[in-house]
Amino acid sequence: MQEALLNDEEPYVTILIHVRTLIGHVKEVLHDLREMEAEELASAVVSTRNVFVSSRNELSEVLGWLPPLAENKLNKEDVEEFEEILRKYLQANDFIVRLELELIRLPYLEFETELDHRVEKARVLEELHIHKMTFNECNELLMDFE
Known about the structure:
- With 146 residues, the chain is an all-alpha fold.
- The chain has 6 helices and no strands.
- Helix 4 packs antiparallel against helix 5.
- The longest helix has 30 residues.
């Protein structure tokens, strides 16, 4: 893929399509997990963990594609700006996935009191909101490269 980007007329667009496809796949898996019953969920979380790890590794690899673009094809400052935004975008996505998994598991965890359960859910939802805002802001900034 990295070689193909050097000949690509719109490498940023190609990278963003690849990244968004991977993120979309993870979102589909999370959606499927939300639809499962408790019995299915326990085994599904274990088997889908590989999907998340694989996706995270592939998304991290994308960042390695950028330095050759800066050296060979594109404006170095633009590539560095793109890389910084993309890093924040991927980091926010990683937090979102983790927090979504926490929300999925939360109803099945035991708490000493109902208040403890509500406090934990509120904490997760607040963190999720913050990371979704960051994700959306980065997504808007990435659109400038399309």
